[in-house]
Write a structure and sequence with these properties.
The protein contains four helices and four strands, in the order E-E-E-H-H-H-H-E. It is mainly alpha-helical.
């Protein structure tokens, strides 16, 4: 009967006999050798052909309106600025209620003064 001899070494920490290819001691459980890590062969095939098709020019939506034209229409016609902005329903409401009894008309004058030129509607 032939016995196969396993090559052994001694643990650095507890001194027990352990197999020669052991990384961890089988008695004390501590690591006695560094793991041998082979560098894997990584292949990256990137065939990305996407192109950006966004056509953003200003970031504003709507039609630009001149602040000073709207302010003049608001002061002299009470409801003209609403028609200028394309808000027909509000223009008719302002026409029949005299600018929401003057309160909406005053608020519109103040808000038009603080808008940038041009503003977008």
């Amino acid at each position: 009967m032939e016995e196969t001899q396993v090559k052994t070494k001694f643990c650095k920490f507890c001194g027990s006999k352990i197999p020669e290819d052991a990384i961890m001691c089988t008695h004390c459980g501590r690591q006695v050798e560094q793991m041998k890590v082979e560098n894997p062969n990584i292949v990256i095939n990137n065939t990305n052909t996407n192109t950006n098709t966004n056509n953003v020019t200003t970031g504003y939506t709507g039609k630009p309106k001149n602040k000073w034209v709207a302010l003049a229409l608001c002061i002299f016609t009470i409801c003209g600025h609403k028609f200028y902005e394309g808000k027909m329903g509000m223009g008719i409401l302002y026409l029949f209620t005299m600018g929401l009894f003057g309160i909406g008309w005053v608020l519109d004058i103040i808000s038009l003064l603080f808008k940038p030129n041009p503003y977008y509607v």
